[in-house]
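[Automated response] Your request has been received and processed.

Submitted sequence:
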Amino acid sequence: MSTSEPNPQRAPANQPLTKQPGTNNVPKATGQSGWLARCPWATFVLPLVVFMLVGTLEPTPDKPFERFGLSIAYSAYPLVYAIKIALTMVAMAAVWPGYRQFAWRVSPLAFLVGGVGVVLWVGLCKLGLESKLLAPIGLGWLVDSGARSAFNPLQNWPDQPLLAYGFLTVRFWGLAIVVPIV
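Generated structure:
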């Protein structure tokens, strides 16, 4: 190819990229093709939906999960949580090309925003401001709807330390790796 011929793969810098017939106009650099190229939002929605849907099956100490003809006792919480993390990771793997489009760098601003967020979150919780702010607008029920299981494997399995620490590893992986990416 001579230098006078335009490169058919790349538009000159001063011309916008035009849609070619029969193409989806998705940049090849993202590595996306097929359904993920047609639904790029799935990268963000699919893993979160899986995480939240399976999370609705988690029992709490005061009441087991009992819906849809299914009953899950509190003692099964570790299994439900492990399944939730595993299925979320499968969903993340399905949309992995969508994650690859982002530069994986950490900005110092991220630590500042995270620190401010933690202080606000803990402050709202400790001062009971959630219910004071949400109740007047009719959303007070949201405060109790997000009750955590508070499962302590070291207390529930004192004679099985390998199992207890194994679950703590799964929980740490879920909270420190899976949740931030999702």
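Summary generated for your ticket: The radius of gyration is 23 Å. Residues 25-30 have pLDDT under 50 and may be disordered.
If you did not submit this request, please reply to this message.
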